[in-house]
Design a protein that fits this description.
eight-stranded parallel beta barrel; 27 strands
Length: about 525
């Protein structure tokens, strides 16, 4: 009976999703895509934390060789390039690495390097708790700390250790660990608000055995209740997964948590810089959105059932990016070192469009990573750095796609009744039934916002890898185009590299027309103002 109920719920989700998407996308035979922007009666606020980032010591020079040297010296070139992005939140010490990270080894004067046993390489501990938080403070970034909640019966993965760490960060100088922080040179509490408990607990690693939803939710309820009782002002995050998993966590922990996390990884196959099976990368965000919407239905029901509508639990997409599998001599291999290219602009922009369209239920998202591995910024030595193609996606969106969400409908060329699983290559928190959903996939993907001044900004992305798209904007009455920014290249494999750093960069176009053209894998952002 339980399985039949789950199947029925999944089928209902699929029907709802098809109806929802059909209202917003329609594939036609016309040569021009019509995009209509409507101001809703009640606009949803967009949380800027959807433009967040994540740091993890994963042996790809993200922290050591990225943010700082092995000795802890800051790379000022990286800092200065990240500053204009106005990054709202930074997750650390991040994902799977938390199960081998011992925070006490990263405080005080004595630091000793050790082998990192999750990703390989070395953990130098020179960029520890104090360094991370003070670095965030200087860049006006909200620090977000992830606590390990493992099941290997060590103190390092225990509730006691979690409380010690929180006390070191937020306790006053009269507490045991607050006094230790003061002794280390930071008398006042840091007041870090965001704390996640666990990471991908449904998976196993060498320090943690995979858990069921019930086991994780029971432990999370115990931990979060005690933490919130001592520190009621903290915002706690619990691990989400499939809708079934998420429902168990919400039923058990709704009183204590503020966010539920989700992870989504697009995967691209690359052969000598060329994107293989491009439709499986460029359209994958549609499958992400289908999975998000299933979880959102569970979230909405829980908030209503447990009286959390005034202070709702929301989602944080804690990890996302476009992973590259590069063809070697014998097989494809995963690497974070491959350059970000013009086609990565499409993946990143369409993912951000998904987060925008699903405001306010998606309230945070953290791209991995800001530096080097999959990075927005690439380093050259210990004192030089440059911007990748994806850097500009975040710069444009962070500066322009803010405020509140507007409605957008798209009618134009695309793929009619596409089966989502055939137009995606996605890993992470994915349910099987979403892959069978059929919907229209227009080549043009879009999201629109209105800022506090009343300006409308529209993000337009061309998901076709080989055909330009002509677009006609239908704007709300009284609005006209004020400026158009273009992030495009004639070569969809183009990348910024150390020797040639400005191959792909945004351009402010002279034309201010409501009719425009998108190159293959191109991004344009249009600002409109009331006349």
């Amino acid at each position: 009976m339980k399985n039949l109920l789950l199947l029925a719920a999944s089928m209902l989700f699929s029907v709802v999703l098809n109806q929802t998407f059909a209202q917003n996308n329609k594939v036609t035979d016309g040569k021009t895509t019509k995009l209509t922007v409507t101001i809703p009666a009640e606009k949803s606020a967009i949380d800027p934390m959807i433009y967040g980032q994540m740091l993890e010591d994963c042996n790809d020079k993200v922290i050591y060789g990225g943010i700082v040297s092995n000795e802890g010296k800051e790379n000022s070139a990286v800092t200065e390039l990240l500053r204009p992005l106005n990054i709202p939140v930074m997750r650390w010490p991040a994902g799977t690495a938390i199960y081998n990270y011992e925070w006490r080894k990263g405080i005080g004067k004595e630091r000793k390097a050790e082998k990192e046993r999750i990703w390989g390489g070395m953990e130098y501990y020179t960029f520890g708790t104090d360094e991370f938080i003070t670095w965030c403070e200087r860049l006006n970034i909200a620090p977000y700390i992830n606590i390990p909640m493992g099941n290997n019966n060590t103190y390092q993965h225990s509730l006691g250790n979690a409380l010690d760490w929180i006390e070191y960060v937020n306790g006053d100088a009269t507490t045991t660990y607050g006094a230790l922080r003061a002794k280390n040179g930071h008398a006042e509490p840091y007041v870090v608000k965001l704390w996640c408990i666990g990471n991908e607990n449904y998976l196993g690693n060498r320090f943690h055995k995979s858990e069921s939803a019930t086991t994780y939710a029971t432990n999370l309820a115990h931990w979060s209740k005690i933490i919130k009782t001592i520190y009621p002002d903290l915002n706690l995050l619990g691990v989400g997964h499939t809708p079934e998993w998420t429902k168990v966590v919400l039923d058990e922990c709704h009183e204590w948590i503020d966010y539920v996390t989700l992870h989504y990884y697009v995967t691209a196959r690359i052969d000598n810089k060329i994107l293989l099976d491009p439709h499986k990368s460029l359209f994958t965000a549609a499958l992400v959105e289908a999975n998000l919407k299933q979880n959102i239905e569970v979230l909405k029901a829980a908030n209503a059932k447990y009286g959390r509508e005034a202070n709702p639990i929301r989602f944080s997409v804690d990890e996302w990016n476009n992973r590259h599998l590069v063809k070697g001599e014998k097989s494809f291999y995963f690497t974070r070192k491959d350059d970000r290219r013009q086609y990565d602009v499409v993946v990143s922009a369409t993912m951000l469009n998904v987060f925008l369209r699903n405001s306010p239920y998606v309230a945070m998202a953290n791209y991995i990573f800001p530096v080097n591995g999959h990075g927005l910024v690439k380093t050259v030595g210990e004192d030089d750095a440059y911007r990748s193609t994806v850097y500009y996606v975040f710069e444009l969106y962070r500066n322009m796609l803010t405020g509140s969400l507007l409605d957008v409908s798209v009618e134009g060329a695309g793929i009619a009744s596409a089966r989502l699983g055939e137009y995606a290559r996605l890993e992470g928190d994915v349910t099987a039934n979403t892959k069978t959903i059929e919907q229209d996939l227009c080549f043009v993907d879009a999201a629109a916002t209105m800022d506090e001044s009343g300006d409308i900004c529209i993000a337009l992305v061309n998901r076709s890898h080989d055909a330009e798209q002509k677009i006609k904007l239908d704007l709300p009455e009284g609005y006209s185009v004020a400026e158009v920014w273009s992030l495009e290249s004639e070569d969809i494999s183009a990348a910024n590299i150390a020797e040639n750093r400005d191959v792909v960069q945004p351009r402010l176009l002279k034309e201010k027309k409501s009719s425009l053209t998108l190159l293959p894998c191109g991004l344009k952002i249009v600002r409109c103002r009331a006349k």
